[in-house]
Amino acid sequence: MGQTLAGRVAVVTGGASGIGRSCALRLAQDGARVAVLDLNAAHAGDVAAEIQAEGGTAHAVGVDVADRASVDRALAEVRKHLGPIAILVNSAGKTAHDSFLDISLELWTSVLTVNLTGTFHCCQAAVPDMIEAGWGRIVNISSSSAHSGVPYMTHYVASKAGVIGLTKSLALELGPSGITVNTIPPGFIDTPMLRTAQAGFLDTPTEKVIGQTPVRRAGRPEDISAACAFLVSEDAGYITGQVIGVNGGRNT
Ligand SMILES: NC(=O)c1ccc[n+]([C@@H]2O[C@H](COP(=O)([O-])OP(=O)(O)OC[C@H]3O[C@@H](n4cnc5c(N)ncnc54)[C@H](O)[C@@H]3O)[C@@H](O)[C@H]2O)c1
Asked: Which atom of ligand 1 is nearest the CA belonging to 190?
């Protein structure tokens, strides 16, 4: 794998679980000093300890990405312990499943605030370091549901479509500063979020989805972190504003 990210500080939100955890582990293996940020500070600490046990450098910080003051405090702690932020992966997310007519303004706002405004907060708080350095990489985890739409998930899908729009526009604005901004919309990745959804509202048994997936398997968090590792690398410097689907071919 090598130490292609040596000297870089990477922040991964939602880093305590699933896709974010896999991205944190992978970027550390590639040499980055990794800040593991999550609402679940204890689990973020476990991931940081896992990285340290493998010989990497990591620091865990509890954060609520929906709360700008919390994001600002967390990034200040990252700068103090690890240094200026060069790489940001926004993976923190909240799923929801409700009939459209049952979605209260409060519920709508809470989903939009974590998934879309949380991404806005983290980008806006981290980008000054990247502009200062003349180099930066942002990867926003959106969702394949924004390709297709999903019934009973208008709030979630709207929030993820918003992340795609934010990504495209921010890429145009930050390109001249040496910063790339891309989004990975995952599809059917075996994580705690997916398992919880399957145990509750998601009427899609794994075997059925696998049968509908061209590569004939479910996704793994490592499928997303591999794409993420490429997008934050030096080699990906000419790729920005892109939607890089990682979904086994179900959405093209
Ligand atoms: N698993 C999939 O198939 C799939 C598909 C499409 C999109 N996604 C997206 O991928 C991202 C990661 O999901 P996952 O499947 O790894 O889920 P996960 O539940 O395993 O991990 C999500 C993490 O985000 C954290 N989080 C939630 N709200 C937060 C907040 N306000 N502040 C900080 N941290 C918060 C959680 O504590 C959790 O550790 C999410 O944005 C999700 O919407 C996942």
From this structure: 1
pLDDT at 203: 83
Taking the C-alpha atoms of residue 218 and residue 110, their distance in angstroms, rounded to an integer, is: 29
Ligand 1, residues at Cβ distance < 6 Å: 13-14, 16-20, 38-40, 63-66, 91-95, 114, 118, 141, 143-144, 186, 188-189, 191-194
Q: What is the pLDDT of residue 105?
A: 98
Q: CA 62 to CA 65: how far, in whole Å? A: 10
Apex 242 CA angle, 238 and 244, nearest 5: 110
Q: What pLDDT, in 10s, does the model give residues 173-216?
A: 999 999 999 999 999 999 999 999 999 988 889 999 999 999 99
φ, ψ of residue 61 to 5 degrees: the values are -140, 130
User: Taking the model in full, what pTM does it have?
Assistant: 0.98
Catalytic residue among 94, 156, 166, 247: 156
Q: Which atom of ligand 1 is nearest to the CA of 192?
A: 20
Mean pLDDT of the chain: 97
All domains in the chain, ordered by first residue: 9-236 (3.40.50.720)
Q: Which residues, in sequence order, are CB contacts of 150 under 8 Å at separation 6+?
A: 156, 157
**Shortest-distance Cα residue to atom 11 of ligand 1:** 91
Active site residue 238: no
Q: Tell me the Ramachandran region of residue 24: left when phi exceeds 0, alpha when psi lies from -120 to 50, beta otherwise.
A: alpha
How many angstroms separate the CA atoms of 120 and 126, rounded? 10
Query: Which residue's CA is minimally distant from atom 25 of ligand 1?
Result: 14
**Mind listing the pLDDT tens digit for each residue in 83-130?**
999 999 999 999 999 999 999 999 999 999 999 999 999 999 999 999
